[in-house]
UniProtKB/TrEMBL annotation:
Domain called Gamma tubulin complex component protein N-terminal: residue spans: 3-316
Purpose of the protein: Component of the gamma-tubulin ring complex (gTuRC) which mediates microtubule nucleation.
Keyword Cytoplasm: yes
Protein name: Gamma-tubulin complex component
One of the GO biological process terms: meiotic cell cycle
The Gamma tubulin complex component C-terminal domain, residue ranges: 319-595
Organism classification: Eukaryota, Viridiplantae, Streptophyta, Embryophyta, Tracheophyta
Family per similarity comment: Belongs to the TUBGCP family.
Single Gene Ontology MF annotation: gamma-tubulin binding
Top-level taxonomic group: Eukaryota
Length: 672
């Protein structure tokens, strides 16, 4: 009777003398107990026995009860495993748990087959309690290890990566028992089969096939690739696909590589470039075994995806050509285009920003492009223009992520931006843009383009200041040629020449000593780049270095440079207003053709104007005031401080380029 009850208990069924008690508060947990009626029945049988055999019967009774209790843990583990299989056989619990439940079900079928064989032996009268205990030993350790695993899985409600981590850790903990470890490794392989299929689709196709959220890579579908060209703070590349917290322990070291591989394949897929890693028998992810073959497969997939995307970007989408085009226009490498545009757009650019027609400016940009050497550039049609609503300094203040210390308080205290804000025109706010298609927007994002535009605005305004000073100098040279207003014009001309030399030296430094060498350095590094992430890093480093060396990340220094430029503009404007430039210039620029009488008439008019100008005491005093006031009061208080900062910056910049003689000469000229 006891053996019959034990055989029933082994498959989770109550018997005549063995009962099952469920543990309160713990689903699936049961306790097997020996019913008190079993003791009474055995006691009665002992009372009817012969007196000399009573003690022997009592000893057998105690041994029988002990062996029965020793078999109970095996029965309890079976019930727990059966309950786990039943609860995790639904797909809603996840593919990993579903696969683990299937593997456990197969194991329990083997267990039930063993119980059926023991029952057959019992029916033939060949099985005792001691024999039953002996035959159960083989299953005791295996089922107990699985029960421990199941308890942890149920208590933590694990799924996906957490279940795989649990299986992996439990297998490593059983290093001393080869049979149990082999069983747990088999369970791990079975449970990870579904996970491997998800991993294969990601690293070989760039697709997340994760219906129950078990994969360690998450997709944020709210982030669209269009945000790269529209949002300065776009996080598409960083957050469209990201790593979750639950990464399988055996994939920790290659998780970033796996993420990047799928991202590269996904970019190509969104470009309509259907590419898939060529699969062979050796490249299939079969298991996370100890031979680490899966790591080699992942590395091969990464190398393939990285090379394919880089080739696609460079060949089909001409990444280097686009960067060269940005250099040509936004870094003012195409000089004739800019000069022609500033000539034909002068009237529109002198208006206030809100009065400027962007459409008209765009048409003027197109005219300038078609009328110069830029017409041969196939990318010139991607060039656009825009008009900002704030000055360069205020724009820098609004960009909080730049590695500088701009603040609105310092800007107000410096009193630099206030006059510019009141009299701001399109010359201070005009900016070029560029149409960047996908997938080039990964490298040339809205943030990168904004940095290009900051440099363009600085260079464009410097060009404008230089042109204004050139006009003032030409007017003065017209008066000096006829030796009129000698002392005032001489002093004003010297000051104008100094200002012009300063602005031209600044432009030379920015273009030939900062932008040009840094661009060539970036170009050389891009030729050896092996991935798009490396290309993005190189390009961002180039922009950051250019911003810093162009003084845009040095607030105190840039404010003083802007003050000097504003002073130069005020001087040039004053000279053009005080001296009758229009008449003099017109008289000098007339064609030599025509009758001698007409030439004589023009010469007479010019002489009369010059005579009036020479006799105009107010004009002479005004020119002297304009020439002396800034040089004595403003420049003397500003320039030493300005050059102290410039000297410090250029000295630190020149330390790494001491071998460049041209750099030393140009920077020395700039310092002078």
């Amino acid at each position: 009777l006891v053996i019959d009850d034990l055989l029933s208990a082994l498959v989770g069924i109550e018997g005549r003398y063995i009962s099952i008690k469920r543990v309160r508060g713990k689903e699936g947990y049961v306790v097997f107990q020996i019913d008190s009626s079993m003791d009474l029945a055995l006691q009665v049988s002992c009372d009817h026995a012969e007196k000399g055999r009573i003690y022997l019967g009592l000893a057998n009774l105690l041994l029988l009860q002990e062996l029965t209790r020793r078999i109970f843990p095996l029965c309890e583990d079976f019930v727990l495993a059966s309950q786990f299989v039943e609860s995790r056989s639904h797909f809603k619990t996840g593919l990993v748990n579903h696969a683990l439940a299937a593997a456990l079900r197969a194991f329990l079928l083997d267990y039930q087959a063993m119980v059926a064989q023991l029952e057959h032996q019992f029916r033939l009268g060949r099985l005792s309690v001691q024999g039953l205990w002996f035959f159960c030993q083989r299953m005791m350790s295996s089922l107990n290890a699985l029960a421990v695993l199941i308890e942890k899985a149920m208590s933590n409600n694990t799924s996906g990566s957490a279940t795989l981590n649990l299986l992996h850790s439990q297998a490593k903990a059983m290093a001393g028992d080869s049979a149990v470890r082999s069983l747990l490794e088999k369970m791990t392989d079975c449970a990870s089969a579904a996970y491997l299929r998800m991993l294969e689709r990601w690293v070989y196709e760039g697709v997340i096939d994760d219906p129950y959220g078990e994969f360690f890579i998450a997709e944020n579908k709210s982030l669209q690739k269009e945000s790269l060209t529209q949002d300065y703070d776009a996080k598409y590349w960083q957050q469209r696909y990201s790593l979750k917290d639950g990464i399988p322990s055996f994939l920790n070291n290659v998780a970033a590589t796996i993420l990047t591989t799928g991202k590269y394949l996904n970019v190509m897929r969104e470009c309509g470039h259907n590419v898939q890693v060529s699969l062979s028998e050796n490249s299939k992810l079969t298991s996370f075994g100890s031979n680490h073959q899966y790591l080699e497969c992942i590395k091969s997939a990464y190398d393939f995806a990285s090379g394919e995307l880089l080739t696609l970007m460079k060949d089909k989408y001409d990444l280097i050509g686009k960067l060269r085009s940005l250099k040509r226009y936004l870094l003012l490498d195409q000089g004739d285009f800019l000069v022609h545009f500033m000539d034909i757009a002068r009237e529109e650019l002198t208006k206030k920003p809100e009065d400027i027609s962007v459409e008209k400016l765009q048409s003027l940009v197109d005219i300038a492009l078609r009328s110069t050497a830029a017409a041969s550039d196939p990318s010139h049609e991607d060039l656009t223009c825009c008009v900002e609503r704030s000055s360069l300094l205020k724009k820098l203040t609004s960009l909080k992520d730049l590695d500088c210390a701009y603040s609105s308080d310092k800007l107000a205290a410096a009193d630099v931006d206030q006059p510019m804000t009141l009299n701001i025109t399109g010359l201070e706010t005009f900016c070029l843009g560029y149409k960047i298609p996908w997938p080039l927007s990964l490298v040339i994002s809205r943030k990168a383009l904004t940095k290009y535009q900051l440099i363009f605005r600085l260079l464009f305004h410097c060009k404008h200041v230089s042109r204004q000073l050139c006009q003032a100098w030409q007017i003065q040279q017209g008066f000096r040629s006829v030796k009129i207003l000698g002392t005032p014009i001489l002093r004003s001309s010297i000051l104008c020449r100094s200002m012009l030399k300063f602005v031209n030296s600044l432009l030379h430094y920015l273009t030939f000593e900062v932008l040009e060498p840094n661009w060539h350095s970036m170009h050389g590094r891009l030729q050896t780049a092996r991935s798009i992430d490396e290309v993005i890093q190189i390009h961002d480093f180039f922009l950051q270095k250019c911003l810093k060396e162009c003084l845009l990340l040095l607030p105190e220094l840039l404010m003083k440079v802007e003050k000097l430029k504003a002073l130069c503009l005020q001087y040039a404007t004053s000279i053009q207003l005080l001296i009758p430039s229009i008449e003099v210039a017109a008289a000098e620029s007339k064609s030599k053709s025509g009758s001698s009488r007409a030439r004589a008439k023009r010469s007479q008019d010019r002489d009369e104007q010059l005579k009036l100008a020479s006799e105009n005491v107010v004009m002479s005093q005004s020119i002297l005031y304009v020439s002396q006031c800034p040089s004595q009061s403003i420049l003397q208080s500003l320039v030493p401080t300005q050059f102290r900062f410039v000297t410090h910056h250029l000295a630190s910049s020149a330390a790494g380029n001491s071998s460049r003689s041209s750099t030393r000469s140009s920077r020395a000229s700039f310092l002078r």
